[in-house]
Amino acid sequence: MTRRETCRSRLVRCVLALAVATALSGCSGRPDAVQVSGTVTFKDGSVPQAGVRVVQFVPAQDSPAKIRKAATGEIRDDGTFVAFTRKPGDGVHVGKYDVTFSVWEGVMNSVSLLDGKYSSPTTTPYHVNIEDDVSDLVFEVEPPAKKSGR
Length: 150
Known about the structure:
This protein is mainly beta. Strands 3, 4, 7, 8 and 9 form a five-stranded antiparallel sheet that branches. Strands 5-2-10 form a three-stranded mixed sheet, with no helix packed on it. It is 14% helix and 37% strand. The model is unreliable at 24-30 (pLDDT under 50). 29% of the residues are buried. It has one domain (3-24, 37-141).
């Protein structure tokens, strides 16, 4: 593994850990969780190429879920992801989620490679209700709009 890959891997783990840590509420019991996976691509079918690629499932404001914890997953080179709550393999709590994305240029460069609407639960176009295992979620994202110059 190159030094660059090591730094990228560490940052992705840190971003995932931070997202998960922010969502933890200290519940001691293990509630029902399901396995959630899918793909993230640009609308043309290509996969975002970036130093950091993460999909986040943020509990929706109107979710009736008893347990409201965020889940995350790294977007792999082929565009696939597997979401988890605390550790890989533990799944996602049943509930309603706003789906956001963090796709940054690099480990040390947090410039987003996606349109800003995908980074916030209030502006994302993606909302899902997770009730059972799902392996075919498909999210198509767009790069930032180009600014017209004069």
